[in-house]
Amino acid sequence: MISYLNGEVLKREEDFIIFLTKGGIGFKIFVPYPEKIKNEIYTSLFISEKEINLYGFLTFEEVNLFEKLIKLPQVGPKSLLQIFKFYTIDEIYERIKKGEPLLVKGVRKKILEEIYEFLSEEIEALKVKDKKTLDAIKILMSLGFEKDEIIEAIRKVNSYDKISLEDYVKEILKVIKNE
Q1: What is the pTM of this model?
Q2: What integer is the mean pLDDT of 135-150?
Q3: CA 126-76-7 angle, 5° bins
């Protein structure tokens, strides 16, 4: 997996760049904002029946969001590039928190609604929980578990306020593993 490149931009087009690494290898990378890419880029390799492409972003957080949203049905990488071209991550979450719809020219309304709903549920799931739960989610995600799976397991853990974070994580793991 290619997740980060350091080098320079050789060519900029409307929706992609040719990025030359210090090792002398050039990569065609689809990006939402070719003019902003300078000497480094975070990437995600996307493989489907029709394509194998690299998608690039300025920050690791953007790659994480891209990789999370690309798993949604009917959401494709080109639609996500359009969204990232139009909104920053903070702007996306801010619009959702305010209840304002995402509006992006060239992206179907149904796709934007699906993304909106997915991120709204994520925000709601995080709102109702305390710091211990957020820490447990981070720990379990770093171990490779999916956030949806973790949140579903957390709902099944009865009492967690009198136990340590370590024990709380163990309880969540028991639910995930059906022990």
Answers
A1: 0.70
A2: 86
A3: 90
